[in-house]
Amino acid sequence: MKWIGVALLAASFLLPPFLAGDFYVNLASQILIAAIFALSLNLLVGFGGMTSLGHASYLGVAAYISALLTSRYGFGHGLAAIISIAGSTAMAAFFGVVALRATGLGFLMITLAISQVLWGLAYRMSNVTNGDNGIAGLTRPMPFGISLDSAASFYWFALVVASLAFLMMTIFVSSSFGSSLKGVRDQPRRMAALGFNPWMIRWITFIYAGFWGGVSGLLYVYYNKYIHPTSLSITSSAEALLSVIAGGSGTLGGPVVGAALVLLLKNYASAYIERWNMLLGLVFLFIVLVMPTGIVPGFSRLVTGLRRESR
Amino acid sequence: MSISRRQFVSSVAGAGIASMAAPHLVFAQNSGPIRVGLMAAKTGPLASGGIDMELALTMFLKERDNTLAGRKVELIVADTAGTPATARTKAQELVEKNNIHCIIGPLAAFEALAIADYLTEKEIPTIGVAAAEDMTQRHPSPWFVRATSTSAQCAYPLADYSAKELRYKKIVTIADDFAYGHEMCAGFQRAFEDNGGKIIQKIFTPLATPDYGSYVAQVKNADAIFLGTAGSNGFRFLRQFIEYGLKDKMAVIGGMTALDESVLRNMGDEALGIVTTSWYSAELDNPLNKAFATAFRKQFKYDPGYYAGGTYVSGQVLEAGLKTARGNVEDKKALMTAIRGSNAETVRGVVKFDEFGNAVGDAYIRKVTRKDGRLVNSVIKTYPDVTQFWTYDKTAFLKDPVYSRDYPPAKNLEQ
Amino acid sequence: MQFWIIQGLNSLSLGGLLFLLSSGFSLIFGLMRLANLTHGAFFMLGTYFGATALRSWDGLNIWVTALGAGIAVAAIGGLFERLVLTRLKTNPLGQVLVTLGMSFIISDACLMLWGGDSIPVPTPRNLQSPTRVFGFVFPTYRLVLVGCAIGAAIALYLLLERTRLGAMIRAGVDDRQMARAVGIPVSNLFTVVFCLGAGIAGAGGVLGGPILSAYPGLDADMLPLALIVVILGGIGSLLGAFVGSFIIGFIYTFGTALFPELAYIILFLPMIFVIAFRPQGLFGRVGT
A149 is in which domain, residue-wise? Predict the structure, then answer.
């Protein structure tokens, strides 16, 4: 029963290019990109118990590296992508060491501070990053010679990457490493007593989250064909964090649902409702009051509850 | 003032559903409405300007009974939230979902840069308000015109005026630390130093500066301080400047958005006598502006400024283009050519476009005075037909790099 | 010489402002372990209230206005705490969502009610003429603000150290479960403290108004500063918030003046160092 539901859901992701016009397909692509970003953050927040408010660092850095290499230094997209991901992953490794010296609010603040420093550098180093004019005129890659310029072709590309990301993260989370991560999240002292190395487990997760954050950054810059320091801003990180929490941290579907919610409110509802920011806030309040652990866990509880009643 | 948008939502939804069903085929209908998209930042830090843009344009259309060149006009307003990614999404929404024929806006340089390639690719006639220099210099687009001015265009006349008539010798500049501020101060510096003046200090304040105290204290002794600020930052800085007693020692002059009408209404006598420059003033003495400013003031209780004026002018330019093209928006090339060739009579005077799509028009030196009990920007001198290249040779200008924080290099800074 | 004195005074006044902003945040986090991300919005709300009140009624006393705004914001905070936050005691992520959501609501409401322009808050008339200091002028109000901060610090100190309420708060900060065990009504205490924290923020908003002005985005500009001060000074420590505010005031003022290229990162670099090497902050008693 559950698998039919999941299969239907998966199938629905195949529909947009056939059913809707370019605008909606583009919206769907944006949802996929935001979903990958939120999923990567969720590895830290939901499964690792480390609330980060600076995840946009990895998205932004990967995006900037790719933009600079392709537009200014004439690199091909394939090589630029590899370097960008390597760069953002290496950065995650380095910043992880710094950030993991703290927990809780301190960790939140360090991650926030790091992303703010990067944001400030992106603004200030305008001879490299073009400052607040951003870098425009970027191109999309052509994997196997296929152009990604049309809305539909980009969507398929994003869907492939997103499915891969989802799969890899599912494997990560359900593996024994994933279990030890959850153990460290819930009972770090006990895990240490059992011989695990909580710091190492957290650090590896941090790096992995940075890796996928970088991947989402690449998709982001390919989609927009433009990069600007706002991609590194607190707002960017905060939106992802809100998506994760609203959708349900600690689940795999949660960040996807949360990302879709935030994006639809921001980019779609804003056309019809002038006070969409207020609506977003009210929706968050509502979610937390009615489904305190997020939409996805709330929904599955609802479904299980209904099923139990109908028996 | 979102009534206009709500009214049009049903027709927009209808168009949206239609476009969903037939995504690749949009038949030109000469009898359907002209759909105009307005990209305005109505939330976020730039909200004040965006809100003014919507007010002015809806008023413009209402005055004309929502009809331009004999066809009905539908206005769809998109809130860009002042971020480039949202601007791009909204541009796509306007083009792909709402099927607009032309766009007015956006207001911020980075918004315009984020959507420039998209609008060029989709061939959407755009009348922009954003002042980014390069959009009409080294990276012009055949589909983009700007009826207002570049960041530096109005700074040149003020630099000239400061050197020749106000006889300032040393000036300090302060602006927000982003491209608009850099470009405006660069232009001012260049023209001022050409006339024998010296810029002895250039201060750029980060965008999020709640307290200007430490910057006020850094200001060196000079004849005047030039405010290249945008939004309300100019007036917030000015307040601190006055409180530290500096207004008694130095004059204050400003660029196009330093003491905009929308900011002036919240100020008091401290603003009197401040000289600024712009391509517009609510006090302009032509019949079109007299009617517009009076009507705007009557409806919204404050004078129109940079954003309201800029959008109204853009509307007038669009109307002129539409009239020449006989309302045929479906022929986009013809519309764009008509717009570029229009010599529209607008509330700022006559607007012509140079070959890059930037407006050539009068620039006004204004002084804050009190009239009818309110503060206004009275025009004290007009510089006719100012282009974005001022008196410089166009080819040489374009060979140089675009204005930035460090270009042209400031050679007279005091330590 | 003049530069150092003026910037020194600027640092003090900025520090005073920061203390008014962050003392409430520190109080709330210390007791409730709640990072109140709505704090910037509460502050901004106070500024807007102050702007409207002081502009509409000429001659209205700013201290009275600050008190009034403080009470109003405290009431809003109290409602929020009772209706929403109490349910999230064991849900820190939910707290993040809800406090951020509330800040969206408040900031959009402010945009809706007051529009997009900056609204200046008039300086009290009797404080408008500048003070002469060593031959140059300095705005009197800024000096008064330092006095306000010191006054607020003393008042809070007396509250925490000399009253029963304060004793209960300190007990709750040190060991929440034990406090409950000895019969302290922790839940009601939470509401009181949240109201107090929000109220101080609201009052601080009014008092900071003449310097900052009310503008959309003030909340987003102020919140990171509150966070930095509290992290630096240490959680749960009033002294930490006080000292931290002035340290940040000095770093920011002199930093932006002497190293303008570092303006964006001048505050975050020291903070990263502090967290990395002394995670509990300078005076923190509570682990983060």
Answer: 20-233
Q: Which residues of B touch A231 (CB under 8 A)?
A: 85
Position of tokens 């006095």?
C147
Q: Does C270 lie at the interface with A, CB-CB under 8 angstroms?
A: no
Where exactly are the structural domains of chain C? 2-223
Q: What is the pLDDT along chain B (415 residues), one digit of tens a residue?
A: 444 554 444 444 444 444 444 443 344 445 789 999 999 999 888 888 999 999 999 999 999 999 999 999 999 999 998 888 899 999 999 999 999 999 998 999 889 999 999 999 999 999 999 988 988 999 899 999 999 999 999 999 999 999 999 999 999 999 998 889 999 999 999 999 999 999 999 999 987 787 898 899 899 999 999 999 987 888 889 989 988 889 989 999 999 999 888 888 888 888 999 999 999 999 999 999 999 999 999 999 999 999 999 999 999 999 999 999 998 888 999 999 999 999 999 999 999 999 999 999 999 999 999 998 899 999 999 999 999 999 999 999 999 998 988 889 999 998 7
Structural fold of domain B155-284+363-399: Rossmann fold (3.40.50)
User: Is C7 in Cβ contact with B266 (below 8 Å)?
Assistant: no
Residue B154, both tokens: 């109005």
Which residues does chain C have within 8 Å of residue B213's beta carbon, measured at their own beta carbons? Answer: 10, 13-14, 142, 211, 253
Give the B window 122-181 contacts with C, CB below 8 Å.
177
For A208, residues 6+ apart whose C-beta sits below 8 A from its C-beta are A43, A172
Q: Residue C137: list chain B partners with CB under 8 A.
A: 244-245
- Provide the ipTM: 0.88
Q: Which residues sit opposite B227 in a β-bridge?
A: B174, B254
Q: Which two tokens stand for residue B132?
A: 């980014």
- According to DSSP, the residues that pair with B366 across neighbouring strands are B276, B379
Alpha helices, H only, chain C: 2-32, 39-56, 62-83, 92-114, 140-162, 164-174, 176-181, 186-212, 218-233, 238-258, 268-277
Q: Which CATH superfamily is domain B3-149+287-361 in?
A: Response regulator (3.40.50.2300)
Locus of tokens 């309302």: B327
| Long-range contacts of C123-131, Cβ-Cβ distance < 8 Å, separation of 24 or more | C123/B243, C123/C210, C124/C61, C124/C62, C124/C210, C125/C59, C130/B243, C130/B244, C130/B245
